[in-house]
Amino acid sequence: MKDKRHLTIVIKLGSSSIVHEKTHEPLLSILTLIVETAVKLHKDGHRVVLVSSGAIAVGLRRMDVEKKPKHLPRIQVITINGLCSSERRALTEITQALAAVGQCRLMALWDSLFGHLHQPIAQILLTRNDIADRTQYQNAQNTFAELFNMGVIPIVNENDTLAVSEIRSIGDNDTLSAITAAMLQADYLFLMTDVDCLYDKNPRTNPDAVPIDVVGDVASIEADVSSAGSSLGTGGMSTKLVAARLATSAGVTTVITRSSKPGNIANIVNYCQSLKRFPQDTPSQPLTPANEDCFSNSISSLHLEAASKPPLHTRFLPDLEPIRDRSFWLLHGLAPHGTVFIDEGAHRALASKAGLFPAGIVGVEGQFAQQEAVRLVVVSSNRPNSAGGITAPTSSASSKQVDTEIKAPLEIGRALVNYSASEILRIKGLQSTQIEGVLGYADSEYVALRENVSLIKREKVGNRPATPATLHSTAPSEPLSQRPSQEDLSSNRANTKRPRGFKETI
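The structure corresponding to this sequence follows.
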């Protein structure tokens, strides 16, 4: 029998995959293939979501504007339809207006293409505020669930008509697709781009560039990310690595592959699923009569060749202990309004699932109110100062200097706090029983309940299988976490290397 498991597959398409970079005309040949692929996956019983860029680009074409505005909020005179506007307008407003114009036509285009195959679609526009509010976040989850039940394919985009910060309140649609995939607890996230996969060098200028097939840890790869994306988009390969880290931390297998070949998506999914079901029968091994029958029972003979030799792509393995739902929302859905510095004892308590008491707090930075998100930063501050207190960062500019013997602060997570910054400054280092005496009230004995704390996962030795290339590494200090899993061994083209300084910025 075929594997009847229904998968959730999120497909992210950049502006360069939807419209021509110079003429801004829709790339109908690619869009048609994408629609056919999405409908086929849907008919196979999978839940499919498209994350679509392109609203601004389509708006440029509709209004005959040659280039996408840059340098917000720089003032510039722009000619639209031959009429010169003498008013000094912020480019933000113009770009938002272009997005509003383009969004209508973009969705009309999608609806027309899907309509030929009698597939209903829905539009979902998101902003940072939608994700930051827990109720709205859950409402979005419920909307997706109901659309899936109705057999509808949702098409997601950030609401560019409302986003202000460089027309991106979330950051870019790569990040949006990762957040969407985590929100849905998706099985796969496909980041479609203009190259087949990640390479160790720029393949456009280096013919000897080697493809990277399997990545166990985004932070440990050495790849060329010099591509800054098209003139229509806001991201590039580096933003895809950030999105891959976000998605894999939530347990989502993330794939980078070429957008002009969307039919590869089904082949890659079949290949990955075959590895999960038959880890011993790796595609690099010839099929014997005995295991061929078993293999054909799991996937159709039509897909056997694809499962044996998958299309070129880069696959990021999901975290073995993923961050789910509320914890992911706390870490990546909320924008922090300040920082709370804690000692190592408080860090250990949080790691042991205890809440955050004021006794473990050594400092505060920034201004925030109750029930707002803050960064949690641990500092080693065991030496008493001359006044008998603890040397630590505080909100005062004159007291932010950290003793040179204290270890560098390390951000460990995010939290929703029960007290404001000024209140925490007054009760830091005290016992919970002293809160009411200092503030005159005690809303909670905790500065942050444990359910409102999400810690950043750190890679530990042995908890992450790495890529096949590591098996042949000669480095004597290679940790156990770099040893490959059986799934990794099935790809003989994999080539990941040691880190060369890539740093995530979210």
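The longest helix spans residues 91-115.
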